[in-house]
Design brief:
- The protein is an alpha+beta fold.
- It has one domain: 2-Layer Sandwich (Alpha-D-Glucose-1,6-Bisphosphate, Chain A, domain 4), CATH 3.30.530.20.
- The protein has four helices and seven strands; from the N terminus they run βααββαββββα.
- It has a seven-stranded antiparallel β-sheet with strand order 1-7-6-5-4-3-2.
- Helix 2 crosses helix 4.
- It starts with a strand and ends with a helix.
């Protein structure tokens, strides 16, 4: 089944500026710094944004750390089909979990709303649903960090 996570993020900037920001490696690197990843990299090639990050598992419940260990690697690939839409695939290499969905940008009155709509799936009996909820919460925190960074980024342009 999975857990659906939907988040709307609004920026006081036109769509083309928000899209340029979201596909800028320097912006994405700043977001990774803000998220305090253990290590990470960003590659942007032809509208495809790949974020490869390792996060500390400290602070996760013990049932989750038993599955992922001390660190968790997350690979996120956004394929921007146009400035208005990206397909998103997130994998956790070597672990039975993934996220997939879309990001869409819509502009109204010079403000742009980014909607992230993802389905979190963890294929584990008994604890899969708990982990899906945990991953969904972590995703929302990551999107909040991206939003705060984006507001500052756009204000400095």
């Amino acid at each position: 089944m999975g857990k659906r996570v939907v988040k709307d993020i609004t920026y006081d900037a036109p769509l083309d500026e928000v899209w340029a920001m979201l596909t800028d490696p320097a912006f994405r690197e700043r977001v990774l710094e803000r998220m305090k990843v253990v290590r990470g990299s960003v590659v942007v090639e032809g509208g495809v944004v790949t974020l490869d990050q390792v996060q500390s598992a400290s602070g996760l419940p013990s049932f989750a750390t038993k599955l992922v260990g001390d660190e968790i690697r997350i690979v996120q690939v956004e394929t921007w089909r146009s400035p208005e839409r990206a397909d998103i695939e997130v994998t956790i290499p070597g672990k039975p979990g993934e996220m997939s969905g879309t990001a869409t940008l819509t502009e109204s009155g010079g403000r742009t709303t980014q909607r992230v709509d993802l389905e979190v799936t963890v294929r584990l009996p008994l604890v899969g649903g708990k982990i899906e909820g945990l991953v969904g919460d972590l995703l929302l925190k990551a999107l909040d960090a991206e939003h705060r960074t984006g507001v500052e980024w756009l204000a400095s342009r």
